[in-house]
Structure formats: C-alpha cells, structure tokens
Design brief:
The protein is α/β, with parallel strands linked by helices. 46% of the residues lie in helices and 16% in strands. It contains 11 helices and 7 strands. Helix 9 links the parallel strand 6 and strand 7. The radius of gyration is 17 Å and the shape is globular. The two termini are 22 Å apart. This is SMUG2 DNA glycosylase family protein. InterPro entries: Phe_SMUG2-like, Uracil-DNA_glycosylase-like, Uracil-DNA_glycosylase-like_sf. It comes from Mucilaginibacter dorajii.
C-alpha cells in the first residue's frame, strides 16, 4: 500500500506544464531544471511523510528560485534542508527568508516531525515562474502578477490542486499563505470548484520577513495558534 511519501513523489515526478506562457515569462520546474531537486525532495518526503497520518494542505503562491526551486520542497531552502532536516544537499547553497521564518515557526509548533505529520506545504500554482528584471537578472514572478499569465495557467492550477487533494489530504480546512492576491485568487477558485469547506489565510512569510520582521514572533504565535486548532 502506498504512503503519502509515495504519492507526493509520484506527483513531483510527473509535474510538468505543457501550455504556452506570455512573452518573457519562463517556467521553473526544479524536478526537471536540475539533477538534484527530485532526489533530495524524495529523501525529504520518505523521511517525514512515509505514513498515512491525516494532514491538512498549506498553499503558498508558487515556488521561488532560492527555496523549493533548489530543493523541490516548499519553503525549504538548502540551508534548512541541511541544518534542520539533516538531509545531504549537493546543489548551490541559497538562502530564502521565507524558509527561515517557516522553520522558526515549525520549531515553535513543536518541531519538524510533529509539524509535517500534520501538514503538507505546497503552492496554489505548483511550478514557479521567472522573468528577466531591469538589470538583466532572472527574478521570481508570481502567477497573479499578470492577468495573461493567470489565465494561461488557470487550468493547470485546477488540475494540480485536484491531483494534490487526491493524494489524500483533508479538505475541511486549507491554509493559505498570503492575505492579499493569493488569498483572493484561492477563495474565488474555491467558490467555483468547492475544493475546501474553509480557507484560513495567514500573512505570507516573505511579507513578514520583509516588512514586519520586528514583530516576527507575534506572527509565529498567530501561525502556531491557527495550526494547532486543526491538529488531528
């Protein structure tokens, strides 16, 4: 019988976008863009998800270059993969502030094993996007940053949310990272598709680290309280 780990790994293995994108936008698929993310993420899921314990979904925006774009695991940058998850990593060492926040929150919740036994973090759009910035450097781009992009990936988002829910996650409550455009999009989508009975939105880790770092501990308390209320 397959475990959550088996089904998540299979989802990642087959994750691919075959549609067209607006000019200047590139897709970011860590499982196909490099030769280490799939292996590292598979080790991660076999370590923390090799069971059938009920879990709730937590949905961010879409993968970023310095976190899951490197490791294949949402909000887990190489530094956290090595130091916190104690899983060997052979790719470039990058730092993602959102990952730092999430793992500080996980520690406050009760630790990595305890948290991942209850929750699975991914994204509304399971693959990321990049665009060339003003200085010629590749920068992250969100699925909602351009109406044409949102429209192009809309069927892809629906299909892959269906696939992730089918992995076996609870649908009474879904958590959303982001209280602005990501929340608005997910609520509208949920009204149409009826994926979840309730959506609980929390301020996005990146927003907290960039604009509210002085009150970071208050946000961690808010997160922990919200997550604790649905623990199975």
């Amino acid at each position: 019988m397959s475990t959550f780990a088996d089904r998540i790994i299979n989802f990642n293995k087959n994750l691919q976008y075959n549609g067209t994108l607006p000019a200047g936008i590139s897709i970011m698929n860590p499982f196909r863009d490099n030769d280490f993310a799939f292996d590292i993420s598979s080790q991660f899921y076999r370590k923390y998800y090799n069971d059938e314990h009920p879990r709730h979904l937590v949905l961010g925006i879409n993968p970023g270059r310095f976190g899951s774009g490197m490791t294949g695991v949402s909000f887990t940058d190489p530094k956290r993969m090595i130091a916190q998850c104690q899983i060997p990593y052979t790719g470039p060492i990058t730092h993602e502030p959102s990952s730092e926040y999430v793992y500080d929150m996980i520690k406050a919740f009760g630790g990595i094993t305890e948290f991942y036994q209850q929750f699975y973090i991914h994204s509304v759009c399971p693959l990321g996007f990049t665009i060339t910035g003003p200085k010629g450097k590749e920068v992250n781009y969100n699925y909602y940053d351009m109406p044409e992009l949102s429209k192009a990936v809309y069927p892809f988002i629906i299909e892959n949310l269906q696939k992730q829910i089918a992995i076996g996650f609870e649908t009474d409550v879904c958590f959303c990272f982001g209280t602005g455009k990501n929340e608005a999009f997910l609520r509208k989508l949920n009204d149409e598709q009826q994926f979840f009975k309730k959506i609980i939105a929390l301020e996005h880790p990146r927003f907290i680290m960039q604009y509210k770092s002085k009150t970071k501990l208050d946000y961690i308390d808010k997160y922990v309280k919200a997550f604790s209320e649905v623990v199975i």
